[in-house]
Amino acid sequence: MNQSTSLFGGFAATFQRDLLLAYRNRGELVNPLVFFLIVITMVPLGITPDPNELAKLAPGMIWVVALLATLLSLDGLFKGDFDDGTLEQYLISPQPLYLIVLAKVVVHWLVTGLPLMLFAPVLGVMLSLPAAGFVPLMLSLLLGTATLSLVGAIGAALTVGLRRGGLLLSLIIMPLYAPVLIFGASAVASATEGMPSTSQVAVLGSFMAISMIGAPFAAAGALRVSANG
């Protein structure tokens, strides 16, 4: 019981610390959301204002922009801890590193993925997304953005010691993001066409479950390699 309490205490302390840091730097938190809004706003201006055409583009466009917006904030997931020496303290701490990584990923999703999910219906209206697509859109983004944060943590951990690792981070994790993008956009598109989207949502749920189990361990191992390298 004491050991379980100690493990949870390490997770909770990291969670509270990162959430507080995110609140203090809340100006940076709006960047992915602003990017999300600007790109979607430009679509009718740059492609077509026809509602029927926009409705066809909406599932893919919203998902692509959500993926890119998540990617924008990944580079700093561990960078601050690496620069100020906190990462070294994590490595020698008796607390399991994978729980610390998981806490940081949860905060990243709360301040990045969750706002994108909640704001997506507004952008769906802007792109004339049919009403049948709103629930699958939010559900797919709920599962998908969580997976993006978990998988992205692996790339962020591998590139944390590099001075300009943003491009390499994108190259590492983009192939891993592709299945999430495909099934996420497909779930919304199927719903707008009157077909069931439960199978795509189920696949996204399995992606998230697998990522929840494996990604923190992989990211923890990558952090040890990057710190020692």
TrEMBL record:
It is found in: Cell inner membrane. It is a multi-pass membrane protein. Keywords: Cell inner membrane, Cell membrane, Cytochrome c-type biogenesis, Membrane, Transmembrane, Transmembrane helix, Transport. One of its GO terms (biological process) is cytochrome complex assembly. GO terms for cellular component: plasma membrane. Its main location: membrane. GO terms for molecular function: heme transmembrane transporter activity. The chain crosses the membrane at residues 29-48, 60-78, 98-122, 134-160, 167-189, 201-223. Required for the export of heme to the periplasm for the biogenesis of c-type cytochromes. Belongs to the CcmB/CycW/HelB family. This is Heme exporter protein B. It comes from Halioxenophilus aromaticivorans.
